[in-house]
Amino acid sequence: MSLCLICTHPSDAPRTACARCGDRLRGWLAEIPRQLVLLAASLELGARPAQGYGGAGRAHSPLPVRGDVLTLLGPAAPGPVRDSARDQTGPAPVHAILYAWADQLAEDLGHDLPPMTPRAPYADYLARHLDHIVRSAWVALLHAELADVVRRIRAITSTEPRRRALDAPCPSCAAFGLGHTDWQAYVDCETCGLLLTPTEYDEHRAAVMPALVRIGILMTARELTQEAS
Ligand SMILES: [Zn+2]
Ligand SMILES: [Zn+2]
């Protein structure tokens, strides 16, 4: 047993990040490519009103793009940026962050960095090797940088994953804390941190819910009887 470098909860060695923190990383890596599409749309918004409200003409050239969005969408540095990142002032672009960590990952795995895919630069590569990442010494640094970049992106796109509460109680702690958040692979318990695959949840639900529903009906019937008497 060791401690998760991110949340300090116990984690099964040789993991350096617990299952829950690993799942959060996987969720962000799935979210970022989707958010980049929204971010690109936000970039162009500044140019639209001039067309939409048409015809008045412009006294000044408007800033064609939003600076904060442009910063996030900036291109990946052409070479490794891990060392130079500390010299940078201001926040790093999403692509540069993903590139730097993909570069670190490829070095760990002892192979060449695969070519960048146009839509989701290296988010999928990192997600594919999450099993290695949650055993690496640098998982907490990656987690901190992704948390920051996801927070910055969501602030601009006003879009964040929704959490849907699920009705069966947690099989581990019995609290009603199970739920599923968009883009996460697992159903998780907010109370104890348990993770279940959707299939495991469905099986658990099928096993416990009929009895719970029966108890609920009996309790309601009893209350109604008491009220009537
Ligand atoms: Zn953790
Ligand atoms: Zn629980």
Report on the architecture of this protein:
With 229 residues, this protein is α+β, with helices and mostly antiparallel strands. It has 2 domains: 2-160, no CATH class; 163-229, no CATH class. It is built from 8 helices and 6 strands. The strands form 2 sheets. The chain has a 4-stranded antiparallel sheet. Helix 1 (19-45) packs across helix 3 (67-73) and helix 1 packs parallel to helix 7. The protein starts with a strand and ends with a helix. It binds zinc ion (ZN) (2 copies). One zinc ion (ZN) binds at residues 4, 6-7, 9, 17-18, 20-21.
Q: Secondary-structure map with pairings?
A:
Blueprint: E1 2-3, E2 10-11, H1 19-45, H2 48-52, H3 67-73, H4 94-109, H5 123-128, H6 130-133, H7 139-157, E3 163-165, E4 178-181, E5 187-189, E6 195-196, H8 198-228
Antiparallel strand pairs: 1-2, 3-4, 4-5, 5-6
The chain binds zinc ion (2 copies).
Key words describing this protein structure:
single chain; 229 residues; alpha+beta; 2 domains; 8 helices; 50% helix
